[in-house]
Write a structure and sequence with these properties.
alpha/beta; Rossmann fold; 2 domains; 7-stranded parallel beta sheet; 16% strand
Length: 420
């Protein structure tokens, strides 16, 4: 089976090289991977002890960051490495203030690339976030003596581990991963059911992260001037369906303010056609530009503001749930105590069911069902505030998963020191 896995990786590399001819993100990811070995070689010494967090993309980075920050506090002499699989995660984080000594793309999972990469430092602790498993990497790190964890693990029935041919993959996880910290009891039960006894339910570290986000300074220039005290809906990480929903609401209610932050900045041109009188955030230079236009809609044509923009919302609509691409982060909105609405395709987001059960949010089959409910809610301030309170209470009620995880990792480290 390992032979077939290596063929799969080779085909993946080949496919990305072909795709890079037509796709800018693939081209960027390939170019970034060619630089990865050089980045770690210039940053670390072979004797440096490193804590390494791998995140597939930006969402997983945010999910793992509370754990990484706590580990850095406990091991201040260790250096920090963060790797990404996708360009979107890498691009967002490399431009921000961060705690890493090095950030780069994860090398392709061939034995040759993995060895060339990992020989440049000593991995003391490695963790991947949620479910991004690369088997040659895990095997090499285990061989080198690293402690390996999965943070906010999420198992579900359609994964390869539960297929008839999944035993090899389960065996790799069992041999190479020291502990799985699961988001839910259901995920823990699934893992233990296939023999991964090194599992426990820690909770979702995203709750820890959004509590941190709520407590920082969330002010964004010009937004208070744009709102003018009116009810405001923030459409976060929007796709076509959420944008159609915004269009319906705008046509029915001229008083409500709309802030739209698309999931991809390429959608800005499309949004300008739907909302020809909208303001682009990049065009604002002072409050006067807002007063002159008196616009109903603000299009956010830059990255990095969304989690702060939710603090200005009376209602949040989070994108991705009206199709199979997957629901974006609803917790970033819920933490600010606003009702959160989204599509009903969120099978990989158990927190959505919990938020709905607490009456802090609601899902809809399509935007045409969502529109009348949201327009009705704008007129019912009592219910709107109650749903917002429910959303915030839902966030506050969650345990501190990162503390639980840190305690286990520290115990493992102490045990390793004693055994040596």
């Amino acid at each position: 089976m390992k032979f077939l896995y290596n063929i799969f990786v080779s085909l993946l590399i080949f496919g990305m090289k072909i795709g890079a001819i037509f796709n800018y993100k693939l081209k960027k990811g390939l170019a970034g991977r060619r630089q990865s070995c050089g980045i770690v070689k210039s940053t670390f010494l072979p004797t440096d002890k490193v804590i390494w967090m791998h995140a597939a993309s930006l969402g997983e980075y945010e999910q793992g960051l509370p754990v990484l920050e706590k580990l850095k506090e406990k091991f201040p002499e260790h250096k920090i490495l963060i790797t990404f699989f996708s360009p979107s995660g890498y691009d967002n984080v490399i431009k921000k203030n961060h705690i890493a000594d090095a950030i780069c793309y994860l090398p392709f999972d061939t034995e040759k690339w993995v060895k060339e990469f990992t020989v440049n430092f000593q991995t003391d602790i490695f963790f991947t976030v949620k479910y991004d498993y690369w088997y040659n990497l895990l095997q090499e790190l285990k061989k080198q003596g690293a402690k390996i964890y999965v943070v906010s693990a999420l198992f579900y029935e359609t994964q390869v581990f539960f297929k008839a041919y999944g035993s090899w993959f389960v065996e790799q996880l069992e041999k190479n991963i020291d502990w799985f910290f699961h988001q839910t009891k259901h995920s823990t039960a699934l893992a233990k059911g296939i023999g991964l006894k090194n599992s426990s339910t820690a909770g979702d570290t995203r709750f820890d992260r959004v509590k941190q986000l709520r407590d920082r300074n969330n002010s964004v220039d010009f937004i208070t001037d744009f709102k003018q005290g009116k009810k405001t809906i923030v459409f976060g990480s929007s796709w076509e369906s959420e944008e159609r929903l915004a269009e319906i609401i705008a046509s029915k209610n001229r008083e409500v303010k709309l802030i739209i932050a698309p999931h991809d900045l390429k959608r800005v041109e499309h949004l300008k056609k739907i909302f020809p009188n909208a303001i682009l955030y990049s065009q604002l230079s002072n409050p006067q530009t807002l007063k002159i236009s008196n616009a109903q809609t603000l299009i956010v044509d830059c990255i990095g503001l969304l989690s702060k923009l939710y603090s200005y919302a009376d209602i949040a609509v989070v994108g991705g749930g009206f199709h199979s691409k997957g629901l974006h982060n609803i917790l970033e909105a819920a933490t600010f105590g606003v009702p959160v609405f989204f599509g009903d395709q969120y099978q990989k987001n158990p927190e959505a069911d919990e938020l709905i059960a607490q009456n802090g949010g609601k899902s809809f089959e399509d935007e045409f069902f969502a529109a009348p409910y949201i327009m009705g809610l704008l007129k019912d301030e009592t219910l709107m505030k109650k749903m917002g309170e429910n959303a915030k209470n839902f966030i506050n009620s969650q345990p501190n998963a990162s503390d639980y995880i840190l305690k286990r990792i520290l115990a493992d480290s102490e045990q390793q020191i004693l055994s040596n």
